[in-house]
Description:
Layout: H1 10-41, E1 55-57, E2 63-65, H2 70-80, H3 85-112
Antiparallel strand pairs: 1-2
Amino acid sequence: MPSRRHAPGRWGSRLINIALPYLWLAVFLLLPIAIVAKISLSEPALSQPPYSALWEWLEQGVLLIRLDLQSYQLIWTEFFANSDWPLAAALAVVLLLLLVVPFVLMQRWQQGSGDGSP
């Protein structure tokens, strides 16, 4: 009697079960990230679509890549290159601790005052 483990028809279903989550990840996570990255790195244009192409082939067979990093430079100068970010980071840490510490203390108190049941 042949083993069910090595049945010939089961390899296809196993491959589909493994490949389906990766396909889902590629379609619904990586593809939108790639689209947003393409739009954020391209130059704005008054046309439809409202951005220019990132690359184009020239007559000599040379690939011309145009990246517009001006928006990232603006983010860097507005948020990270000034002296306000250490204060904002310290405030975020304090607020996080004020939120998390009571939960940890409550959990320890409940575990310590229990009747021994998990």
